[in-house]
Amino acid sequence: MRAGPRNRKIVFQRKTVITDDYGEEIEIWADYTTAWGQVIWGTGAERREAAQISASQPATFRVLGNSETRALSVLDRISVAGGLWNIISVVPLGLNEGVEVTAVRTAT
User: Fold this and answer.
1) 28-46: per-residue pLDDT in tens?
2) Could you point out which of 66, 67, 74, 96 has its C-alpha 20 to 30 Å from the C-alpha of 48?
3) Are 101 and 60 in contact (CB under 8 A)?
4) Which comes out higher in pLDDT, residue 81 or 85?
5) How far apart are CA 3 and CA 62, in angstroms?
6) Could you give the CA distance from residue 108 to residue 98 in angstroms, rounded to a whole number?
7) Percent of the chain beyond pLDDT 90?
8) Domain count, the chain
9) Residue 63 domain-assigned?
């Protein structure tokens, strides 16, 4: 992947378990790794179902491949552009090429 398109700071998050002040274990999202990458915005969609309006927008995130980005999965999420994105696929682009992550942001 050429350096030119990598103009967005992308934060990948992963669920982790912490212990709160009362000794209870709770799940939170914590920053897993940060990478500079290219974002390819998809077309948003709106749906009306059961008198509710919801919207979603897909995007593809291309980052350099390293041990952290190659370990991403659909259980992780992305924080970028003021929104949270649920990862729906992670695809290696080839030897030393990078990783392509497809994610969707929803609003209800």
Assistant:
1) 999 999 999 999 988 655 5
2) 74
3) yes
4) 85
5) 11
6) 33
7) 64
8) 1
9) yes
Could you tell me the two tokens for 32?
């897993």
Q: Which one, of 16, 34, 5, 10, lies nearest residue 84 by Cα?
A: 10
Asked whether residue 70 is domain-assigned, the answer is yes
Q: Measure the CA–CA gap between 55 and 8, rounded to whole angstroms.
A: 23
Enter the pTM of the model: 0.81
Contact 63, 10 (CB under 8 A): yes
Mean of pLDDT values over 43-70: 75
CATH of the domain at 73: 2.40.10.270
CA proximity to 57, closest of 95, 104, 21, 10: 104
Domain assignment of residue 52, yes or no: yes
CA dist., res. 4 & res. 62, Å (int): 12
76: pLDDT confidence band, cut at 50, 70 and 90? very high
